Structure formats: C-alpha cells, structure tokens
Amino acid sequence: MQLSWIHDARKRFDKVFPAESLRKRFTVGVSWVMSGSLFRQAASFLAGIYVARILGVADFGKLAIIQSTVLMVSNFGQAGIGLSTTKYVASTRSTDPERAGRIIGFSLTFACVSSLLAGAILVILSAPISEKLLPGGDLSMQLGIASGWIMFEIVSLLQLRMLAGLESFRGSAHVTLYQGILLLPVVVAGGFWGGLNGTIVAYSLVSLLGCVAGQIILWRECRRLHIRIAFRRLWEERCILRMSTMVWLSAIALNVTNWLVGILLARQPGGVTEFALFNAASRFQNVLVFLPTRVFHVSVPVLANLQAEGSRRRFARVLLCAGGITMGVTVTGALLFMLFSDQLMSWYGKDFAQGGKVLGMVAVLCIVSSLWTIATAGLWAAEQSRQMLFLDIFRGFLLISLCLAGPVATAQGLALAHVISYGAGVILLLLVLYRYLRQPWPAREVVSRKEQQEVAS
Question: Would you say residue 149 lies in a domain?
C-alpha cells in the first residue's frame, strides 16, 4: 500500500514536472541549492550567536570588521570570473567538452593566482590598514591571519560556480552541506580556546576543507560528463576575462561601498559597538535573503537560455514568478522580524537587546534588496552588463553620500541609508528592465542558438 502511494506521487510529480522540462530543471536546481545552503546558513547563524556570547560585544565587533574585509577582498579577488565561468562552462559542456575542460582549468589557475595575490597583499598591508582604516589600530595580526581565510574562500566560491555551470546543483549542495557540518563545532571551539584569533583560524580551516571537498566533487562531476580538466593552451580561453571585467567592476562597486560605510560607522565614537549591533542584525538579514540569493543563481542560466531562444514572454513570466514567490516569502519573514525584533536580538546576549530597532530597519532593507536581487537576474541574463555596472555605481555613490552627509553615527542610521540607496536603485533597475523587455529582441542570436542545438542533437 505504501509503495503504491509513493508510485502514484511520483507519477503526479512527473506529470507536473516532465523530464528535461524547463519547469523541472528550475525546480530541481533551486531545491538542491537551497537544501545545501540552508544547512550552512543555519550553522553560520548559530555559530554567530555562540561566538558573540564567547567574545563579547567589543571583540565581536572586531570580528565583524574582519568578516566584512574578507567578503570584500574575496569578491575583489575573483575578478568577476565566477559568473562568466558559469556561463561558458554551461554553454560548452555538451557541444565542446574539450573546451569546457580548458575553461575549468583556466578558471582554477586564475583563482589560485588571484587568491595568492590577495592573501599576500593583505599580509603586506595589514599594518597600514589597521592603523589608518580600522578602529583601534590593533588588528594587524588578525588581518594577517585572515589572509588564509581569504585565499581558501576565493577558490571555494569559484568551485561552486563551476559546479553550477555543469548544472551539478546536487554536487554544490554537498559542498555547502559539508561546510555547514564543520562550521558550528569548529568555529565555536576556535572562539572558546583561542578567542578572536582562534575564531579567525577556525573560519579559515572550514574554508580550506570546503576547497578540498569542492575539488573532489568537481573532478567527479567532470568524469561523469566526460570532461577532462586541462591546463594546456589555457590562454586560448582568455575571452572569459572580457565578460568578467564588467562583473568584477560591478562587484567592486557593491562590496567596497558596503565595506567603506561599515568602516565609517566603526570609526565613530562608540562605533565598534554600533557596528556589532548592525552585524548581528545583518545575520538575520542573511536568513531573509537566503531564498532570493538561491533563486538568483538558478534563474540566471534559465533566463539566459530563454533570452537566447528569443522567448520574451516566457522570460518575463519566469522573472515575474520568481519575483512573486521571493517577495511573498521575504515580506512575511520581515514582518515577523519586526514584531519580535527585541527578542531576536537578545539571542546574541543582553548587550545586543538594544538593537531591536536596528533589526526592524534591516527587515525593511531585506524587502528592498530582495527585489533588487531578482530583478538583477534579468539584466545579467540579458547580458546588460553596462547597465548593471551603472546601477551598482549609482547605488554605491548614493549610499556613501548619505553616510558622509549624516554622518551615520548609529547602526540604525546605517540601515536606513542602505534602505534609501537600494530603494532608489530598484526604481531605476525596474525602469531599465522594463525598457529592455519592450524592445524587439534580435533574431540573429536566436537563429545561431537554434543551429547549435540542431548540431548538438
């Protein structure tokens, strides 16, 4: 009886999601990406709470500065090659496996070189950065330790992009699952035994083990698809760098501005404590933007495929559906965070209970930023990279201007500045996207893609 029920459920699922259909590819991809990332996000969230209780507000604020620096440098070190690698691997893995192997080899080599350079630069400049940019002037040792964290993080992020290009969402889910299993016990143990330095070493260790797992899974998936990772004639694939440039500049505009406004807040009187409150509230933001981020990573290749086919109506339908589902979940979660903001912030300790209003403003920010995330998937998929770069620069310039004009002296003020900058950016973004969808789509690209499909079949 039970087996019959399972068989009927499977038949109904196959009827709703036919094999190789766009609907099934999108649904299965999002499911795998969410399943792995959800566990890692939960582990990171819990680790942040325990570490905050172990380190206290002051050291947790310093850890927040280190983490924001790692995020900024990691995205800078990738040089935008992650998104372009996903696109090129996805377009060549079936029609030209040999070239796909060279692309993966080129990207791995680039990641190793850029990670070593990023780590070395941080070690060399750790003292000046600590003295001139970071409050307290005593974080040079911690920045030097974090160089290993940055190197491993760059490689790990690129490995996940390669797996996405192979449409191995199951493999990427396994990588994030392994990292999530290790994250909570390793980071908590590092904070307990080594304080701030031990916590940074623990994060570095988790990233290192994630790189090892990611490379093993990448080799396995390449063998399954009969792709041989090659490290010869790599320079032939330098065309990847052309697309990477725009992605890189856009990432710089986004991450550097977020990092700078955080430093501006931390340099204010009592700013380290305020930045600790903002960082704690931002960890709840990571929970709310979890779905939009994962939908973005799956939506970009799906929307790009529809754009190549010239299917404007299906393009708009998928984009509206992804946005509607994402906004529904995000708004519901944001309302809950607003209602229980004081109680949620107190999870980090009694010193964080005063940050309830900060979390309320961050909840509003989550709604606006989620809309931004889904809408940007449409422009990136449509290869409107120059428009995206302009929008990121505009948003970042507005954010910095608001912080300098304030000045932003509190965590709540910084959150409000983010809301205003994202809100203005979303308005322009939707206008640009609407104009693109109203324009006639070129037929030349559609024909070439159809010809490629006929050759491949």
Answer: yes
- How far, in Å, CA of 282 to CA of 262, rounded? 12
Range of the domain at 384: 239-445
Written as six digits, the tokens of 275 are 């930045």
Q: How many CB atoms lie within 10 A of CB 67?
A: 19
DSSP string for residues in 183-218: HHHHHHHHHHHHHHHHHHHHHHHHHHHHHHHHHHHH
Rg of the Cα atoms in the chain: 22
For residue 332, being part of any structural domain is answered with yes
| Residue where a domain terminates, one of 189, 211, 238 | 238
Q: Is 166 helix (H, G, I), strand (E, B) or coil?
A: coil
**What residues have CB less than 8 Å from 424, skipping those under 6 apart?**
394, 395, 398
- Reported as a single tens digit per residue, the pLDDT across 110-138 is 888 988 988 888 888 888 777 765 655 57
**Sign, Cα dihedral of 66, 68, 71, 74:** negative
Phi, psi (degrees; rounded to nearest 5) at 17 = -120, 85
Quote the pTM value. Answer: 0.72
Residue 240: what are its φ and ψ, rounded to 5°?
A: -60, -35
Residue positions counted in the chain: 457
Tokens of 111: 């990641």
Q: Are 46 and 188 in contact (CB under 8 A)?
A: no
Q: Over the stretch 227-267, which tens digit does the pLDDT of each residue have?
A: 999 888 877 777 778 777 888 888 777 777 888 888 888 77
Distances in Å between the Cα of 99 and the Cα atoms of 78, 92, 274, 454 are 21, 7, 50, 19
- Domain end among 238, 271, 302: 238
Phi, psi (deg, nearest 5) at residue 83: -65, -40
For residue 292, whether the previous peptide bond is cis, meaning omega lies within 30 degrees of 0, is: no
**Domain match, 117 and 153 both:** yes
